[in-house]
Every structure is written in C-alpha cells, then in structure tokens.
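Hi support team,

I've been running sequence recovery on a batch of backbones for a student project. Most finish fine, but this one hangs at about 90% for roughly twenty minutes before it completes. I'm not sure whether the input is malformed or the queue is just slow. I've pasted the structure tokens below so you can try to reproduce it. Let me know if you need the job ID as well.

Thanks,
M.K.
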C-alpha cells in the first residue's frame, strides 16, 4: 500500500467517524436543552402570548415581564431599576431569543412601587408603559375576590428565559414549569424576611423545580391570571428554599388605577 493511499484511507475513516458521531452529539445537546426554567420544559409563546422579556442597552435578555395591556408590562421593580429607561427594551411575541420575530418596543415611562428598596423587603413590582402597542393577548390581574388563587397547593406556572440550573446557561426558548403555591408558614420557615402581605412563595418542599437567575420579573400564572412576579430566593430549586414572588393581588387596585391614568 502506498503512503498516499494509506493516508487517504485514514482521512476517509476519520470523516466517517465524524459523520457517525455528529448526529449523536447533536441529539445529546437537544436532550440537554429540554427540561427546564429549572425542572420545566419548552412551552409555546402562542399558549402564553402575554409573556415578554426585557433587554438591556446591548440587547441582552436580563429579566421577564407580563403584558397587562397591549402597551403596558408588569415586571419586578429590581428589573426595572437595573437599566436606564432609555436603554430598556421589551420583546414580545418571540419564543426563541436567537430569532428576530415578534416586536421589540421601547419604554416610555417606568413606575416603581412606592417603598421599593430591595426584593427581600417586598414591593418588588413595576409598571412599564411601552412606546407602542403590541398585538398579543394580555394577562389578567387577580381581583380581591380571587383568594382561592393563593390557597396552598394551587398549581401555578412560572415562565421565563432564565437559567436552566443554578449557575448554568440561560434558556434560548421560553420555558415553563408547574409549581404549587406554598403556605405562608412554610415560606416564613424558609425565609426570615418573608412578608405575607407583599410576597408569596411556590415550589416543592424537596426543590427541583423553580425560577432562576434571569427569570426575575416574569409571570407566575394560574390560567391566564397573573398571581405572582418572580422576585427572589436562595439560589434555585434547592430543597426547603422555594421561589419568592411578588403577591400581585396586593397591588391590583393600585395598578388598575395606574393603568387608567396611563391610558388617558
Ligand atoms: C434571580 O436572581 C432569581 N429561585 C430569580 C428567582 C430566584 C432566585 C434568583 C428563585 O433573578
């Protein structure tokens, strides 16, 4: 066998090997990208058209949000305060952050809940008035009579593009996970600074399913009612450390009157 022929054989063999392993490597990657927020799964933005994400001045996703009107978004105060308003963008109708579909709106004005200082001290809610209307169905706010929504064990869904595990990569596709509402006594046990008036918590005692960094500001919904806003927690999906959410019902009246004013 000539050296040249032998070399050609080796090259062919290596190429064949590469071809054989490439699909396996790809399959492995997609299976890794399946289950998450932490412990969730891919969900269709068509089923949750009110979910949006916030981008900073460099167009990077850093928080979530929820349309409550066609031109108004509810998010966490700590998200709205993180970026100067003129650098803030809201992306609606886009399932995959790598794509260019949907609409990117600017923010005309920002309202932070009075008394907001730090997520762990409560009032972690903000309203963003967009510079245009987007044609996606908004979520509904809970009304005073909706106390059932906060009953322990109620199954809620948290949605976002945040990290898939603590310290891990962010999702590129919208993720959703079902988490049960926890009782205030469980939440107080988990966190000394838990405040039942302004917060709620959700998750499993054993952990495993949770919001994570980058999901902040995004929705916790029961059906299409926005019951919570991703706010804080000790890491992600740890046992005994549920996710803490802003208790939206506490702010519904305030937000509703603000919406009327913003509409005018
Ligand atoms: C964050 O940093 C964050 N596990 C969001 C949610 C939780 C923790 C941290 C809850 O955006």
């Amino acid at each position: 066998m000539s050296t040249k022929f032998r070399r050609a054989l080796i090259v062919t063999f290596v190429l064949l090997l590469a071809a054989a392993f490439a699909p396996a490597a790809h399959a492995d990657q997609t299976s890794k990208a399946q289950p998450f927020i932490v412990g969730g799964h891919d969900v269709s933005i068509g089923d949750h058209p009110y979910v949006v994400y916030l981008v900073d001045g460099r167009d990077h996703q850093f928080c979530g949000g929820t349309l409550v009107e066609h031109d108004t978004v509810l998010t966490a105060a700590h998200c709205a305060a993180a970026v100067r308003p003129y650098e803030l963008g809201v992306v609606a109708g886009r399932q995959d952050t790598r794509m260019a579909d949907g609409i990117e709106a600017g923010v005309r004005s920002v309202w932070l809940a009075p008394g907001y200082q730090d997520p762990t001290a409560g009032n972690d809610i903000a309203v963003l008035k967009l510079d245009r209307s987007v044609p996606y169905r908004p979520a509904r706010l809970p009304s005073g009579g909706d106390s059932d929504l906060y009953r322990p064990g109620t199954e809620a869904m948290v949605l976002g593009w945040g990290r898939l595990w603590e310290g891990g990569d962010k999702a590129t596709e919208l993720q959703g996970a079902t988490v049960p509402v926890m009782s205030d006594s469980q939440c107080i046990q988990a966190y000394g600074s838990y405040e039942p008036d302004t917060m709620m918590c959700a998750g499993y005692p054993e952990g495993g399913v949770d919001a994570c960094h980058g999901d902040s500001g995004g929705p916790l919904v029961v059906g299409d009612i926005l019951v919570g806003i991703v706010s804080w927690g000790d890491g992600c999906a740890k046992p005994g450390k549920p996710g803490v959410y802003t208790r939206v019902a506490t702010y519904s009246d305030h937000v509703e009157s603000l919406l009327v004013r913003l509409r005018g």
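--
Follow-up from support: It reproduced on our side and the slowdown came from queue contention, not your input. The pocket of 4-(aminomethyl)benzoic acid is lined by residues 210-213, 215-216, 230, 232-233, 236, 243 (CB under 6 Å). No action needed from you.
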